[in-house]
Amino acid sequence: MELVRDGKNRYRLVRTGKMRVDAVVYVNEVLLPLLRDDKSLEQLAHAAMLPGVINPVVGMPDIHEGFGLPIGGVMAVGEDGVISAGAVGMDINCGVRLIRTDLRVREVPVPQLKNLMLTVEDYVPTGVGKKSKHGELSRRLFERVARTGVRALVEQGVGAAADLEYIEEGGCLAGADLDAVSREAYKRGETQLGTLGGGNHFIEFQEVAELLEPALAERWGLFPGQLTVMIHTGSRGFGHQICTDFSRSHVTAAKKYGIELPNKGLACAPSNSPEGRQYFQAMACAVNFAFANRHLISHDVGRAFADVFRKEPEKLGFGLVYDVAHNIAKWERHGGRKVLVHRKGATRALPPGHEDNPRPYRETGHPALIPGSMGTSSYVLAGTERAAATFFSVNHGAGRVLSRGAAERTISREQFEESMGAVLYNIRNFKEIVDESPLAYKDVDQVVQTLAEIGLTRKVARLRPLAVIKGKD
DNA sequence: ATGTGC
Protein backbone atom coordinates (compact mmCIF):
# COMPACT_ATOMS: atom_id res chain seq x y z
CA MET A 1 0.00 0.00 0.00
CA GLU A 2 1.59 3.23 -1.12
CA LEU A 3 0.62 6.72 -0.09
CA VAL A 4 1.69 9.34 -2.63
CA ARG A 5 1.64 13.07 -2.25
CA ASP A 6 -1.03 14.51 -4.49
CA GLY A 7 -0.77 18.26 -3.94
CA LYS A 8 -0.78 20.43 -0.87
CA ASN A 9 -2.23 18.68 2.20
CA ARG A 10 -3.45 15.83 0.05
CA TYR A 11 -2.25 12.24 -0.24
CA ARG A 12 -3.53 9.43 -2.43
CA LEU A 13 -3.66 5.69 -1.88
CA VAL A 14 -3.59 4.59 -5.48
CA ARG A 15 -5.93 1.72 -6.34
CA THR A 16 -4.21 -1.61 -5.93
CA GLY A 17 -5.20 -5.25 -5.36
CA LYS A 18 -8.91 -5.53 -4.68
CA MET A 19 -9.48 -1.79 -4.38
CA ARG A 20 -12.04 -0.59 -6.92
CA VAL A 21 -11.19 3.11 -6.48
CA ASP A 22 -8.51 5.32 -4.91
CA ALA A 23 -8.57 6.67 -1.39
CA VAL A 24 -7.58 10.27 -0.71
CA VAL A 25 -6.60 11.58 2.69
CA TYR A 26 -6.24 15.25 3.62
CA VAL A 27 -3.42 15.83 6.09
CA ASN A 28 -0.57 18.29 6.45
CA GLU A 29 3.03 17.58 7.48
CA VAL A 30 2.13 17.71 11.18
CA LEU A 31 -0.85 15.34 10.95
CA LEU A 32 0.56 12.80 8.48
CA PRO A 33 3.05 11.18 10.92
CA LEU A 34 0.20 10.59 13.40
CA LEU A 35 -1.16 7.90 11.05
CA ARG A 36 2.01 5.81 11.47
CA ASP A 37 0.78 3.32 14.07
CA ASP A 38 -2.85 3.48 13.10
CA LYS A 39 -4.90 1.22 10.82
CA SER A 40 -6.97 4.03 9.35
CA LEU A 41 -5.33 4.05 5.90
CA GLU A 42 -5.76 0.30 5.63
CA GLN A 43 -9.41 0.76 6.61
CA LEU A 44 -9.87 3.36 3.86
CA ALA A 45 -8.41 0.86 1.40
CA HIS A 46 -10.90 -1.75 2.64
CA ALA A 47 -13.80 0.61 2.06
CA ALA A 48 -12.49 1.16 -1.48
CA MET A 49 -13.05 -2.56 -2.15
CA LEU A 50 -16.81 -2.54 -1.59
CA PRO A 51 -19.26 -2.94 -4.49
CA GLY A 52 -20.53 0.31 -5.99
CA VAL A 53 -18.07 2.55 -4.14
CA ILE A 54 -17.44 5.86 -5.90
CA ASN A 55 -14.02 7.37 -6.48
CA PRO A 56 -12.48 8.35 -4.11
CA VAL A 57 -12.98 7.14 -0.55
CA VAL A 58 -12.01 10.16 1.53
CA GLY A 59 -10.11 10.57 4.80
CA MET A 60 -10.41 13.81 6.77
CA PRO A 61 -7.48 15.40 8.64
CA ASP A 62 -8.90 14.17 11.98
CA ILE A 63 -8.94 10.57 10.74
CA HIS A 64 -8.22 7.75 13.17
CA GLU A 65 -8.81 4.03 13.42
CA GLY A 66 -12.39 2.90 14.00
CA PHE A 67 -14.66 -0.11 13.62
CA GLY A 68 -14.99 -0.76 9.88
CA LEU A 69 -14.55 2.65 8.27
CA PRO A 70 -12.12 4.91 10.14
CA ILE A 71 -13.51 7.84 12.06
CA GLY A 72 -13.02 10.78 9.73
CA GLY A 73 -14.02 8.71 6.69
CA VAL A 74 -16.40 9.45 3.82
CA MET A 75 -17.60 6.63 1.57
CA ALA A 76 -20.04 7.38 -1.24
CA VAL A 77 -21.75 4.51 -3.02
CA GLY A 78 -23.86 4.40 -6.19
CA GLU A 79 -27.42 3.11 -6.38
CA ASP A 80 -26.09 -0.30 -7.41
CA GLY A 81 -23.85 -0.52 -4.34
CA VAL A 82 -23.94 -1.33 -0.65
CA ILE A 83 -24.95 0.23 2.64
CA SER A 84 -22.86 -0.50 5.73
CA ALA A 85 -23.67 0.10 9.40
CA GLY A 86 -19.97 0.14 10.26
CA ALA A 87 -19.47 3.02 7.81
CA VAL A 88 -21.93 5.14 9.78
CA GLY A 89 -20.66 4.22 13.19
CA MET A 90 -21.87 3.00 16.55
CA ASP A 91 -23.30 6.34 17.52
CA ILE A 92 -25.76 6.99 14.69
CA ASN A 93 -26.26 10.76 14.23
CA CYS A 94 -23.68 11.68 16.72
CA GLY A 95 -23.67 15.40 16.07
CA VAL A 96 -23.37 18.94 17.29
CA ARG A 97 -25.79 21.73 18.08
CA LEU A 98 -24.77 25.33 18.67
CA ILE A 99 -26.94 27.72 20.67
CA ARG A 100 -26.35 31.45 20.77
CA THR A 101 -27.36 33.92 23.45
CA ASP A 102 -27.31 37.71 23.75
CA LEU A 103 -25.14 37.41 26.85
CA ARG A 104 -21.59 38.71 26.93
CA VAL A 105 -19.12 36.47 28.70
CA ARG A 106 -17.61 39.40 30.61
CA GLU A 107 -21.04 40.02 32.15
CA VAL A 108 -21.22 36.45 33.50
CA PRO A 109 -19.00 36.07 36.57
CA VAL A 110 -17.38 32.71 37.30
CA PRO A 111 -19.69 31.84 40.24
CA GLN A 112 -22.68 32.35 37.97
CA LEU A 113 -21.09 30.14 35.32
CA LYS A 114 -20.54 27.45 37.96
CA ASN A 115 -24.14 27.81 39.02
CA LEU A 116 -25.18 27.40 35.40
CA MET A 117 -23.16 24.17 35.15
CA LEU A 118 -24.77 22.75 38.30
CA THR A 119 -28.25 23.75 37.17
CA VAL A 120 -27.78 22.14 33.75
CA GLU A 121 -26.59 18.99 35.50
CA ASP A 122 -29.80 18.98 37.54
CA TYR A 123 -31.85 18.89 34.36
CA VAL A 124 -29.74 16.75 32.01
CA PRO A 125 -28.66 13.22 32.99
CA THR A 126 -25.04 12.64 31.98
CA GLY A 127 -22.97 9.45 31.81
CA VAL A 128 -23.22 6.00 30.32
CA GLY A 129 -26.47 4.13 30.97
CA LYS A 130 -28.33 7.15 32.32
CA LYS A 131 -32.09 7.36 31.80
CA SER A 132 -34.26 10.29 30.86
CA LYS A 133 -35.65 12.68 33.46
CA HIS A 134 -38.58 13.04 31.07
CA GLY A 135 -39.40 9.35 31.56
CA GLU A 136 -43.06 9.62 30.74
CA LEU A 137 -42.53 11.95 27.77
CA SER A 138 -39.64 9.85 26.49
CA ARG A 139 -41.71 6.66 26.49
CA ARG A 140 -44.88 8.28 25.18
CA LEU A 141 -43.18 10.14 22.34
CA PHE A 142 -40.53 7.58 21.46
CA GLU A 143 -42.34 6.14 18.44
CA ARG A 144 -43.32 9.54 17.05
CA VAL A 145 -39.81 10.84 17.60
CA ALA A 146 -38.28 7.91 15.74
CA ARG A 147 -40.68 8.41 12.80
CA THR A 148 -40.90 12.20 12.63
CA GLY A 149 -37.92 13.50 14.59
CA VAL A 150 -37.87 16.90 16.25
CA ARG A 151 -41.36 17.83 15.04
CA ALA A 152 -42.81 15.37 17.57
CA LEU A 153 -41.27 17.44 20.37
CA VAL A 154 -42.27 20.79 18.88
CA GLU A 155 -45.88 19.56 18.83
CA GLN A 156 -45.57 19.07 22.59
CA GLY A 157 -44.37 22.64 23.07
CA VAL A 158 -40.67 21.77 23.30
CA GLY A 159 -39.02 24.48 21.21
CA ALA A 160 -40.68 26.21 18.28
CA ALA A 161 -41.59 25.18 14.75
CA ALA A 162 -39.09 27.78 13.47
CA ASP A 163 -36.28 25.70 15.04
CA LEU A 164 -36.80 22.99 12.43
CA GLU A 165 -35.20 25.16 9.74
CA TYR A 166 -32.03 25.28 11.81
CA ILE A 167 -31.54 21.51 11.96
CA GLU A 168 -30.06 19.33 9.23
CA GLU A 169 -32.87 17.62 7.29
CA GLY A 170 -35.37 19.74 9.23
CA GLY A 171 -34.79 17.40 12.18
CA CYS A 172 -36.21 14.37 10.38
CA LEU A 173 -34.50 11.99 7.97
CA ALA A 174 -37.16 10.50 5.68
CA GLY A 175 -37.57 6.75 5.43
CA ALA A 176 -37.61 5.84 9.12
CA ASP A 177 -39.54 2.68 10.00
CA LEU A 178 -39.68 1.26 13.51
CA ASP A 179 -40.58 -2.17 12.17
CA ALA A 180 -36.92 -2.39 11.13
CA VAL A 181 -35.74 -1.90 14.73
CA SER A 182 -35.08 -4.83 17.09
CA ARG A 183 -36.95 -5.15 20.38
CA GLU A 184 -33.66 -4.75 22.16
CA ALA A 185 -32.91 -1.43 20.46
CA TYR A 186 -36.44 -0.18 21.08
CA LYS A 187 -36.17 -0.98 24.78
CA ARG A 188 -32.82 0.80 25.12
CA GLY A 189 -34.06 3.86 23.25
CA GLU A 190 -37.40 4.56 24.83
CA THR A 191 -35.99 5.67 28.19
CA GLN A 192 -33.09 7.79 26.94
CA LEU A 193 -34.53 10.90 25.30
CA GLY A 194 -32.83 14.00 26.71
CA THR A 195 -29.67 12.32 28.03
CA LEU A 196 -26.09 13.28 27.24
CA GLY A 197 -24.16 10.01 27.50
CA GLY A 198 -20.44 9.69 28.15
CA GLY A 199 -17.09 9.56 26.37
CA ASN A 200 -16.52 12.53 24.09
CA HIS A 201 -20.06 13.84 24.53
CA PHE A 202 -20.44 17.17 26.28
CA ILE A 203 -22.34 20.35 26.96
CA GLU A 204 -19.94 23.28 26.79
CA PHE A 205 -20.23 26.97 27.53
CA GLN A 206 -18.08 28.92 25.11
CA GLU A 207 -17.06 32.43 24.16
CA VAL A 208 -16.95 33.64 20.58
CA ALA A 209 -13.23 34.37 20.60
CA GLU A 210 -12.52 35.32 17.01
CA LEU A 211 -14.50 36.11 13.89
CA LEU A 212 -12.56 34.94 10.85
CA GLU A 213 -15.26 36.06 8.44
CA PRO A 214 -16.93 38.83 10.44
CA ALA A 215 -19.68 39.68 7.95
CA LEU A 216 -20.80 36.07 7.66
CA ALA A 217 -20.45 35.37 11.37
CA GLU A 218 -22.61 38.39 12.19
CA ARG A 219 -25.18 37.32 9.65
CA TRP A 220 -25.31 34.00 11.50
CA GLY A 221 -25.93 35.83 14.78
CA LEU A 222 -22.43 35.59 16.26
CA PHE A 223 -20.45 38.47 17.82
CA PRO A 224 -17.13 38.69 19.68
CA GLY A 225 -17.36 38.06 23.41
CA GLN A 226 -20.73 36.29 23.04
CA LEU A 227 -21.70 33.37 25.27
CA THR A 228 -22.67 30.26 23.28
CA VAL A 229 -23.57 26.71 24.26
CA MET A 230 -22.44 23.68 22.29
CA ILE A 231 -24.09 20.28 22.70
CA HIS A 232 -22.33 17.15 21.40
CA THR A 233 -24.24 13.88 21.68
CA GLY A 234 -26.06 11.28 19.60
CA SER A 235 -28.54 8.42 19.69
CA ARG A 236 -27.25 6.77 22.88
CA GLY A 237 -28.02 3.07 23.41
CA PHE A 238 -30.65 3.13 20.66
CA GLY A 239 -28.24 3.79 17.77
CA HIS A 240 -25.59 1.64 19.40
CA GLN A 241 -27.89 -1.36 19.44
CA ILE A 242 -29.01 -0.78 15.84
CA CYS A 243 -25.39 -0.68 14.69
CA THR A 244 -24.61 -3.83 16.66
CA ASP A 245 -27.66 -5.66 15.25
CA PHE A 246 -26.93 -4.86 11.61
CA SER A 247 -23.16 -5.26 11.81
CA ARG A 248 -23.95 -8.83 12.81
CA SER A 249 -26.82 -9.60 10.42
CA HIS A 250 -25.09 -8.00 7.44
CA VAL A 251 -22.21 -10.48 7.68
CA THR A 252 -24.77 -13.09 6.69
CA ALA A 253 -26.38 -10.76 4.15
CA ALA A 254 -23.02 -10.07 2.50
CA LYS A 255 -22.46 -13.79 2.11
CA LYS A 256 -25.94 -14.22 0.63
CA TYR A 257 -25.28 -11.56 -2.02
CA GLY A 258 -21.77 -12.75 -2.79
CA ILE A 259 -20.04 -9.70 -1.34
CA GLU A 260 -16.51 -10.30 -0.14
CA LEU A 261 -15.93 -8.40 3.12
CA PRO A 262 -12.46 -6.90 3.51
CA ASN A 263 -13.09 -6.68 7.25
CA LYS A 264 -15.96 -7.61 9.53
CA GLY A 265 -16.55 -4.02 10.56
CA LEU A 266 -17.62 -3.24 7.00
CA ALA A 267 -20.40 -5.81 7.00
CA CYS A 268 -22.91 -4.58 4.42
CA ALA A 269 -25.77 -5.41 2.10
CA PRO A 270 -26.86 -4.03 -1.27
CA SER A 271 -28.67 -0.78 -0.47
CA ASN A 272 -31.62 -1.89 -2.61
CA SER A 273 -31.93 -5.34 -0.97
CA PRO A 274 -34.44 -6.01 1.82
CA GLU A 275 -31.56 -6.23 4.33
CA GLY A 276 -30.02 -2.97 3.09
CA ARG A 277 -33.33 -1.13 3.16
CA GLN A 278 -34.03 -2.41 6.62
CA TYR A 279 -30.80 -0.92 7.93
CA PHE A 280 -31.61 2.43 6.34
CA GLN A 281 -35.07 2.41 7.94
CA ALA A 282 -33.63 1.58 11.36
CA MET A 283 -30.74 4.04 10.99
CA ALA A 284 -33.20 6.82 10.10
CA CYS A 285 -35.08 6.09 13.36
CA ALA A 286 -31.84 6.59 15.29
CA VAL A 287 -31.02 9.73 13.27
CA ASN A 288 -34.37 11.19 14.23
CA PHE A 289 -33.97 10.14 17.84
CA ALA A 290 -30.58 11.87 18.05
CA PHE A 291 -31.87 15.15 16.56
CA ALA A 292 -34.69 15.04 19.12
CA ASN A 293 -32.26 14.16 21.89
CA ARG A 294 -30.19 17.28 21.23
CA HIS A 295 -33.40 19.30 20.93
CA LEU A 296 -34.72 18.18 24.31
CA ILE A 297 -31.33 18.79 25.91
CA SER A 298 -31.33 22.35 24.51
CA HIS A 299 -34.75 22.86 26.02
CA ASP A 300 -33.41 21.75 29.39
CA VAL A 301 -30.34 23.97 29.03
CA GLY A 302 -32.79 26.82 28.35
CA ARG A 303 -34.59 26.02 31.61
CA ALA A 304 -31.27 26.19 33.45
CA PHE A 305 -30.54 29.60 31.91
CA ALA A 306 -34.02 30.79 32.95
CA ASP A 307 -33.39 29.63 36.53
CA VAL A 308 -30.00 31.27 36.81
CA PHE A 309 -30.70 34.54 35.01
CA ARG A 310 -34.37 34.78 36.04
CA LYS A 311 -35.43 35.53 32.49
CA GLU A 312 -37.12 33.39 29.89
CA PRO A 313 -34.67 31.91 27.33
CA GLU A 314 -36.14 34.07 24.52
CA LYS A 315 -35.39 37.19 26.55
CA LEU A 316 -31.77 36.02 26.79
CA GLY A 317 -31.54 35.74 23.00
CA PHE A 318 -31.39 31.97 23.31
CA GLY A 319 -31.54 30.62 19.75
CA LEU A 320 -30.43 27.79 17.53
CA VAL A 321 -27.50 28.49 15.19
CA TYR A 322 -27.55 25.00 13.69
CA ASP A 323 -27.64 21.30 14.44
CA VAL A 324 -25.60 18.96 12.25
CA ALA A 325 -24.79 15.24 12.19
CA HIS A 326 -21.35 13.73 11.75
CA ASN A 327 -22.25 10.00 11.77
CA ILE A 328 -24.89 9.37 9.13
CA ALA A 329 -25.67 7.90 5.70
CA LYS A 330 -27.83 9.90 3.31
CA TRP A 331 -28.95 9.82 -0.29
CA GLU A 332 -27.63 12.92 -2.04
CA ARG A 333 -26.88 14.12 -5.57
CA HIS A 334 -23.21 14.41 -6.51
CA GLY A 335 -21.90 14.90 -10.03
CA GLY A 336 -25.38 14.40 -11.40
CA ARG A 337 -25.75 10.99 -9.71
CA LYS A 338 -27.81 9.82 -6.78
CA VAL A 339 -25.35 8.45 -4.25
CA LEU A 340 -25.48 7.15 -0.71
CA VAL A 341 -22.91 9.12 1.25
CA HIS A 342 -21.69 7.47 4.43
CA ARG A 343 -20.10 10.03 6.75
CA LYS A 344 -18.43 8.64 9.84
CA GLY A 345 -16.77 11.39 11.81
CA ALA A 346 -17.30 13.77 8.92
CA THR A 347 -19.61 16.76 8.69
CA ARG A 348 -21.65 17.81 5.71
CA ALA A 349 -20.79 21.36 4.62
CA LEU A 350 -22.84 22.55 1.65
CA PRO A 351 -21.58 25.53 -0.37
CA PRO A 352 -23.45 28.83 -0.75
CA GLY A 353 -26.47 28.54 -3.03
CA HIS A 354 -26.72 24.73 -2.87
CA GLU A 355 -30.38 23.76 -3.04
CA ASP A 356 -30.14 21.29 -0.15
CA ASN A 357 -29.29 24.07 2.31
CA PRO A 358 -32.08 24.86 4.75
CA ARG A 359 -33.97 28.01 3.80
CA PRO A 360 -32.30 30.45 6.25
CA TYR A 361 -28.87 29.35 5.01
CA ARG A 362 -29.64 28.96 1.33
CA GLU A 363 -27.51 31.90 0.22
CA THR A 364 -24.56 31.46 2.57
CA GLY A 365 -24.42 27.72 3.00
CA HIS A 366 -25.24 26.28 6.44
CA PRO A 367 -22.77 26.43 9.34
CA ALA A 368 -20.64 23.32 9.87
CA LEU A 369 -20.01 22.86 13.59
CA ILE A 370 -16.67 21.42 14.64
CA PRO A 371 -16.07 20.64 18.32
CA GLY A 372 -12.49 20.70 19.55
CA SER A 373 -11.37 18.56 22.44
CA MET A 374 -12.34 19.87 25.84
CA GLY A 375 -9.94 22.66 26.72
CA THR A 376 -9.37 23.68 23.09
CA SER A 377 -11.27 25.76 20.55
CA SER A 378 -14.26 24.72 18.52
CA TYR A 379 -14.99 26.13 15.06
CA VAL A 380 -17.88 27.30 12.97
CA LEU A 381 -17.02 26.59 9.33
CA ALA A 382 -18.69 27.22 5.98
CA GLY A 383 -18.82 25.02 2.88
CA THR A 384 -17.16 25.70 -0.47
CA GLU A 385 -17.67 24.55 -4.08
CA ARG A 386 -14.21 22.99 -3.99
CA ALA A 387 -15.41 20.55 -1.36
CA ALA A 388 -17.25 18.71 -4.12
CA ALA A 389 -14.01 16.66 -3.96
CA THR A 390 -15.07 15.41 -0.50
CA PHE A 391 -18.78 15.06 -1.31
CA PHE A 392 -19.22 18.39 0.50
CA SER A 393 -17.77 17.09 3.74
CA VAL A 394 -15.35 18.47 6.30
CA ASN A 395 -13.81 17.03 9.46
CA HIS A 396 -15.87 16.39 12.60
CA GLY A 397 -13.52 17.46 15.37
CA ALA A 398 -9.91 17.18 16.44
CA GLY A 399 -9.65 13.41 16.19
CA ARG A 400 -8.02 11.12 18.70
CA VAL A 401 -4.28 10.64 18.74
CA LEU A 402 -4.18 8.44 21.86
CA SER A 403 -6.58 5.57 22.57
CA ARG A 404 -8.50 5.79 25.84
CA GLY A 405 -6.20 3.20 27.37
CA ALA A 406 -3.03 4.92 26.19
CA ALA A 407 -4.29 8.25 27.54
CA GLU A 408 -4.97 6.72 30.95
CA ARG A 409 -1.50 5.17 31.05
CA THR A 410 0.56 8.10 29.85
CA ILE A 411 -1.06 11.38 30.98
CA SER A 412 -0.33 12.49 34.53
CA ARG A 413 -2.63 14.55 36.70
CA GLU A 414 -0.30 17.54 36.35
CA GLN A 415 -0.21 17.27 32.58
CA PHE A 416 -3.97 16.94 32.50
CA GLU A 417 -4.58 19.98 34.67
CA GLU A 418 -2.15 22.05 32.67
CA SER A 419 -3.83 21.03 29.43
CA MET A 420 -7.19 22.27 30.72
CA GLY A 421 -5.88 25.73 31.55
CA ALA A 422 -8.62 27.90 33.04
CA VAL A 423 -11.49 25.81 31.60
CA LEU A 424 -13.96 24.66 34.26
CA TYR A 425 -15.13 21.04 34.27
CA ASN A 426 -17.58 19.01 36.30
CA ILE A 427 -15.59 15.82 36.95
CA ARG A 428 -13.71 15.66 40.24
CA ASN A 429 -11.87 12.38 39.77
CA PHE A 430 -9.29 13.01 37.05
CA LYS A 431 -9.08 9.30 36.19
CA GLU A 432 -12.66 9.46 34.91
CA ILE A 433 -11.86 12.21 32.46
CA VAL A 434 -8.18 11.88 31.55
CA ASP A 435 -9.05 9.90 28.40
CA GLU A 436 -10.76 13.06 27.14
CA SER A 437 -7.77 15.27 27.84
CA PRO A 438 -6.76 17.63 25.03
CA LEU A 439 -3.48 15.68 25.08
CA ALA A 440 -5.36 12.63 23.79
CA TYR A 441 -6.47 14.59 20.70
CA LYS A 442 -4.88 16.12 17.65
CA ASP A 443 -4.50 19.87 17.40
CA VAL A 444 -7.86 21.09 16.13
CA ASP A 445 -6.28 24.27 14.74
CA GLN A 446 -4.02 22.14 12.51
CA VAL A 447 -6.92 19.93 11.49
CA VAL A 448 -9.15 22.82 10.43
CA GLN A 449 -6.28 24.71 8.82
CA THR A 450 -5.42 21.67 6.68
CA LEU A 451 -8.77 21.94 4.91
CA ALA A 452 -9.06 25.72 5.02
CA GLU A 453 -5.74 26.47 3.36
CA ILE A 454 -6.63 24.42 0.30
CA GLY A 455 -10.09 25.92 0.01
CA LEU A 456 -12.12 22.92 1.19
CA THR A 457 -13.69 25.00 3.93
CA ARG A 458 -13.77 28.54 5.30
CA LYS A 459 -13.29 29.46 8.93
CA VAL A 460 -16.11 31.68 10.11
CA ALA A 461 -15.66 31.81 13.88
CA ARG A 462 -13.53 30.30 16.62
CA LEU A 463 -15.14 29.50 19.96
CA ARG A 464 -13.14 29.33 23.18
CA PRO A 465 -14.22 26.90 25.93
CA LEU A 466 -15.17 28.34 29.32
CA ALA A 467 -16.75 25.39 31.10
CA VAL A 468 -17.54 21.84 30.04
CA ILE A 469 -20.02 19.27 31.36
CA LYS A 470 -18.99 15.68 30.64
CA GLY A 471 -20.66 12.36 31.43
CA LYS A 472 -20.63 11.31 35.09
CA ASP A 473 -20.74 7.64 36.05
C1' DA B 1 -19.67 5.45 21.19
C1' DT B 2 -21.88 1.60 24.58
C1' DG B 3 -26.65 -1.46 30.32
C1' DT B 4 -18.02 -0.57 27.60
C1' DG B 5 -15.49 -8.05 27.30
C1' DC B 6 -15.66 -14.12 24.03
TrEMBL record:
Binding-site list for GMP: 200-204, 326-327, 371-374, 378, 396-399, 470
Query: Residues in the active site?
Result: 396 (gmp-histidine intermediate)
Any note on cofactor binding? Binds 2 manganese ions per subunit.
Question: Any one Gene Ontology biological process term?
Answer: RNA processing
**Necessary cofactors:** Mn(2+)
Q: Which reaction does it catalyse?
A: a 3'-end 2',3'-cyclophospho-ribonucleotide-RNA + a 5'-end dephospho-ribonucleoside-RNA + GTP + H2O = a ribonucleotidyl-ribonucleotide-RNA + GMP + diphosphate + H(+); a 3'-end 3'-phospho-ribonucleotide-RNA + a 5'-end dephospho-ribonucleoside-RNA + GTP = a ribonucleotidyl-ribonucleotide-RNA + GMP + diphosphate
Q: Under which main EC class is this enzyme filed?
A: ligase
Q: What is its EC number?
A: 6.5.1.-
Q: Keyword annotations for this protein? A: GTP-binding, Ligase, Manganese, Metal-binding, Nucleotide-binding, RNA repair
The UniProt record gives the binding positions of Mn(2+) 1 as 91, 201
Q: Name one GO molecular function term.
A: RNA ligase (ATP) activity
Which residues are noted in the entry as Mn(2+) 2-binding?
232, 326
| InterPro entries with a match to the protein in the record | RtcB, RtcB-like_sf
Q: Which family does it belong to?
A: Belongs to the RtcB family.
Q: How does it assemble?
A: Monomer.
In its UniProt entry, what is this protein called? tRNA-splicing ligase RtcB
| Gene field | rtcB
